[in-house]
Structure formats: C-alpha cells, structure tokens
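Handout, section B. The chain below has 163 residues.
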Amino acid sequence: MYFLSVRGMPITLTIQLSNRYVSFIFYFMDCPMIPARLISMKAYLEPFNRLGEINTDTEWKTSILEKHGQALFVKDSVPLSPLVASASREICHIHGTDLSGHVTLSFVDAAEVISKGWGERHRLSGTDWVHLGFTMLYVPNTVEETEILMKIFQAGIDYMKSG
C-alpha cells in the first residue's frame, strides 16, 4: 500500500482486520523519514514535569512563543546569560499534539543535537524573535528516548541559567 505523507503532519492509516477496523497513526519527521512509534503521553510528560521539580529556580507558565501550552521558564529572580536575553526566559516546551518540542540551547549543544538526528534548527532561530540556539526536538520513538530529551532539556536549563 502506498500513501502520500506531509512531513511533520500525522497520517492515520485505517485497515480492516477480519471484521473490525484498526487505525495506526504515523508521524513523519524531516529527518530521518521513519514513522515514530507512539508512546504514551504520560510516559513522556512525567520526566518533563520532573525537570521543574528538580530545578527549583524554574517555573511553569503559558508559553510565550507558542501562545498556549505549558513551558518551563527561568524565574525572574535568576540572572540570565546576556546571550539569551531575547528568549523571554522561556527555556523549553513540548507540543501536546505530537510530543515534539523546542528548547533554547548553547551553540555547541544545538550542533550536537542536530548532528545526532534528535532535532533541527528552528526556522526562526537567530532572528529578533528567538535565540540562535532555538532548536526543534523530534518526537521520541521510545520511552527510553525521552531520557535523552530530558538531558537535552536540562542542557537548555543550564545554558539559560549560566548568566
């Protein structure tokens, strides 16, 4: 069976097995072009929420960049690195629709994330709106891969607080 996909958009494939229908949802990322296995949202959100508990100088607020959804911010009382002044203190957020995310990283960390295929540079990074290290993270394929993303998010937290 062949079907056309739009990168970054979910595709639902419904097939008939015996006397019932079964649906599969595939997410196609820009690189690599492989369907990501779905993981439970709870398994992904638990480690993400843990970041806020571990890092007491951060707080949850509505994302300034996305205009909805929760994002992790550096508290106003914590000095920021001058390099991230344009980031409005928003460190990272994930998208509830597909569990991809965005994070502000150092240039070195952003390059490593991109080279290892965990994400890509955001199209607006380096503009007046977002920091050059603003990186989109791909949907994790397994629950275990969420731990890699948590390390990436932690690197973003550390970078934002390095002031």
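Note. Residues 57 and 77 are 8 Å apart (CA to CA). Compare this with the example in section A.
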